[in-house]
Design a protein that fits this description.
Rossmann fold, 10-stranded mixed sheet, alpha/beta, 4-stranded parallel sheet, single chain, about 600 residues
Length: about 600
C-alpha cells in the first residue's frame, strides 16, 4: 500500500538504508524523455543559526556563502558522480548552490537548492519581518519545488514554526524547519543528520504541514517548544505525539497529520500584528505591573498561568485590571505554564479569569498561542469573530474536545471478521488491516463516483490520501473518471493534490490525459500544478496532439496552465505542426488563445 504516493507500507523506508552512496548511480535516459530515476526538487531556505556558524572573535556567528560549498564535500549530502554523469547542472539549468542526495531505496533522487537569506541571523535576532521574508520566498517558489526545508537557529525555531503554520494558508506541501546544536562544520555534530532527515521528509513524503525535524523526530511545528540547551534532543511536543519517528524504521502516524480541507489555492498572510505579548503570572505579581503591561498599544496578550489555567483570585485589583483590559478590547489568551496539560475551568481561580473575559488557550504552547494571537488579530473581521477563531483549531495547534463519538474503522464488523479469519488480535495488526483495506475500498468508491461510500470511509477514520498498490489515491481515480463532485469532496476532506503514483503522475496529469476540463479547472483553482517531471518533453506531446487535430487534448493542457508554444523534439511548435498538417480547427484554437 502506498502512502501519499511517496512510500509503500505503513512504515516508511529504513532511515539507515534510505541512502546508498556506495552503489553506482543509475543512468538517466535523457534523449527519449524516459527517466529510470525519479527526481524531486526541494528548496532549502537558509536563514542562519548554529548549523552554519563558524568561530569568530566574538563567538560563534553565521558565515555567508559557505554552506553549499561545504555540503558538496560530504558524500552523504551530495553525490558528485551522479551530478556529473547525468549532466545535472546543464540539464536542469542549475546553479552552484544546488546539490543532489545519493539514491534512496525507492530509486528516488532529491535535488535540493540552497537559497541563502541576507543577512544570515542568529535566531535570537529573528523578528516578524524575517517571518514575512521566509513566507514570501515560499510563495514565490511554491510551484517550482516539491517540498521545502528551512534552516533556522534553535532558540526561536518554535516561534517561527508556529508563525509560519498560520501564515501559510491552504498548504498542500511539506515544509520542514531544522537546525542543530553544534555547527555542521565540526567533526562531531547533529547538523548532518538533522539536515538529511529534513530533506528526506520534504522530498519523499506529502505531509502538508509546517513541521520541525530534530533528533530523529518530525513534529507539528506549532506544537513544539525548546526544552534543552545542551542536548541534541532539544525539542519536545508535550501535548501531541510526533508526526513521524526516524529510528531504524521511518514510521509516520498518518492519522495525526493535519490537512487543509479546502479547494482554495496556497496563499501567505504577512504583516502579523506586532502589538501582542507574553505575560507570565508569578507569586506576588502586582496589579500595577499587570496594568502597565496591558496598556496601549497592546492588543493581545498570552497570559501564562499556573496549573490548569489558574491565577490568584485573592487580589481583586489584579482581576479588575484584566477585566478592564478585555472591556477595552484587549484580547487575553490563557495558557498554562506547565509543559503538559490543558487549561480548564475546574478551579475557582480559573473560573474567575473566564469571568474577566479571558479566553482559554486549551493545550497550546505559549509560542503557538502568541503566533496565533498575532495572526488572528491581523485578519479583518469583528472582535467577536476573532475571539471565536482563537477558540478553534486552525492548524492543529490545539486539541479540541471531540463532539460525540466518532466511529472507528477498527471497530467495523467487516474489519473484525477479516481480522478473525487472519487470526489477528493485537491493536497494531488490526490497524495494519485497516490501512491495507482503506485504499482499495476508497479508490473503488471514487471510480464509481459513490460519494456515500467515501463519506462512510472517512467517518470511520479512513485516510483518503492513502494510495493503492500503484500509489494511486482516490483523487487520482476520481480525476481520471471525471467525477467533479467526488473531486471537490475529496479536496474538502483534505486529500492532497500533490501525491504522485508510481509512474510520477499527479491527479492533475490524470485529468489532462482523460480531457476532463471541469476537473482540471477545479484542481487549478485549488492550486494544483504539474511537476517538473511531468513536464518533461511536454512540447513533443503537444505537437503530437496538434498533428492529430486533437483540440480537446490541447485545450486540456492549456487549462492546466501549460504554455502551448513549447517546441517538440524537432524544434517545431504545435501551431506549425497543425499548419503543416492542415488542421484548420487547431489553428483557430490557437488564434482564439492570442485574441
Amino acid at each position: 500500500m502506498a502512502i501519499d504516493g511517496a512510500q509503500t507500507g505503513k512504515k516508511g523506508s529504513l532511515l539507515s538504508r534510505a541512502l546508498s552512496s556506495t552503489e553506482p548511480a543509475p543512468a538517466l535516459e535523457i534523449g527519449g524523455g524516459c527517466t529510470t530515476m525519479s527526481e524531486v526538487r526541494v528548496l532549502v531556505i537558509n536563514t542562519g543559526g548554529t548549523i552554519g556558524m563558524v568561530p569568530q572573535s566574538e563567538g560563534l556567528a553565521p558565515e555567508a556563502n559557505k554552506l553549499a560549498g561545504a555540503l558538496k564535500k560530504m558524500p552523504v549530502l551530495h553525490d558528485v558522480a551522479y551530478a556529473n554523469e547525468t549532466q545535472l547542472y546543464s540539464r536542469l539549468k542549475l546553479g552552484k548552490d544546488t546539490l543532489v542526495l545519493p539514491a534512496s531505496k525507492q530509486n528516488k533522487r532529491i535535488i535540493y537548492t540552497i537559497l541563502e537569506l541576507h543577512p544570515l541571523l542568529d535566531s535570537s535576532n529573528m523578528t516578524p519581518a524575517e517571518w514575512d521574508k521566509i513566507a514570501r520566498h515560499l510563495k514565490i517558489n511554491y510551484e517550482k519545488y516539491d517540498g521545502f526545508v528551512i534552516l533556522h537557529g534553535t532558540d526561536t525555531m518554535a516561534y517561527t514554526a508556529s508563525a509560519l503554520s498560520f501564515m501559510c494558508e491552504n498548504l498542500g506541501k511539506t515544509i520542514v524547519l531544522t537546525g542543530s546544536q553544534v555547527p555542521i562544520y565540526e567533526l562531531r555534530n547533529d547538523g548532518r543528520a538533522n539536515l538529511l532527515g529534513a530533506l528526506l521528509f520534504a522530498g519523499q513524503f506529502v505531509i502538508p504541514e509546517v513541521c520541525l525535524y530534530f533528533c530523529n523526530k518530525l513534529y507539528r511545528g506549532n506544537r513544539v517548544t525548546k526544552v534543552d540547551a545542551e542536548s541534541f534532543n532539544a525539542f519536545c511536543s508535550p501535548n501531541l505525539p510526533p508526526l513521524a519517528n526516524a529510528e531504524v524504521d521511518i514510521t509516520v502516524d498518518w492519522e495525526t497529520v493535519w490537512r487543509a480541507k479546502t479547494t482554495k489555492r496556497f496563499a501567505i498572510h504577512t504583516n502579523m500584528n506586532c502589538h501582542v505579548g507574553l505575560l507570565r503570572i508569578f507569586p506576588g505579581i502586582t496589579a500595577a505591573a499587570v496594568k502597565a503591561f496591558l496598556q496601549s498599544p497592546m492588543e493581545g496578550v498570552v497570559l501564562e498561568t499556573y496549573g490548569s489555567g489558574n491565577a490568584p483570585n485573592n487580589c481583586p485589583d489584579l482581576l479588575d485590571e484584566l477585566k478592564k483590559a478585555t472591556d477595552r478590547n484587549v484580547v487575553i489568551l490563557n495558557c498554562t505554564q506547565c509543559l503538559h496539560g490543558s487549561v480548564t475551568s475546574v478551579y475557582a481561580t480559573g473560573k474567575n479569569l473566564m469571568d474577566a473575559g479571558v479566553i482559554s488557550g486549551a493545550d497550546m504552547t505559549p509560542e503557538a498561542a502568541l503566533a496565533k494571537l498575532s495572526y488572528v488579530l491581523s485578519k479583518p473581521g469583528s472582535l467577536d469573530k476573532k475571539r471565536k477563531k482563537l477558540e478553534e483549531s486552525l492548524r492543529g495547534e490545539r486539541t479540541n474536545s471531540p463532539i460525540g463519538t466518532q466511529i472507528s474503522l477498527k471497530d467495523s464488523k467487516f474489519i473484525q471478521k477479516i481480522a478473525q479469519s487472519l487470526l489477528i488480535s493485537c491493536k497494531e495488526e488490526l490497524g495494519a488491516v485497516k490501512d491495507a483495506l482503506t485504499p482499495p475500498l476508497a479508490c473503488a468508491a471514487a471510480k464509481s463516483g459513490d460519494l456515500d461510500a467515501v463519506k462512510a470511509l472517512r467517518n470511520m477514520g479512513g485516510n483518503l490520501s492513502f494510495g493503492d498498490y500503484d500509489g494511486r489515491t482516490p483523487l487520482h481515480v476520481a480525476s481520471c473518471e471525471g467525477h467533479l463532485e467526488m473531486v471537490q469532496h475529496l479536496l474538502k476532506s483534505g486529500a492532497t493534490m500533490y501525491a504522485k503514483d508510481r509512474f510520477g503522475a499527479t491527479p492533475l496529469l490524470n485529468a489532462i490525459k482523460f480531457r476532463h476540463h471541469s476537473v482540471i479547472c477545479l484542481l487549478r483553482t485549488a492550486g494544483a500544478h504539474l511537476s517538473s517531471q511531468e513536464l518533461v518533453n511536454v512540447g513533443t506531446e503537444l505537437c503530437s496532439l496538434a498533428f492529430n487535430g486533437d483540440v480537446d487534448g490541447l485545450r486540456a493542457w492549456h487549462l492546466a496552465g501549460v504554455d502551448l508554444n513549447q517546441p517538440g523534439y524537432d524544434g517545431n511548435t504545435p501551431f506549425k505542426v497543425a499548419e503543416a498538417a492542415g488542421h484548420v480547427e487547431v489553428k483557430e484554437f490557437f488564434s482564439q488563445l492570442t485574441t
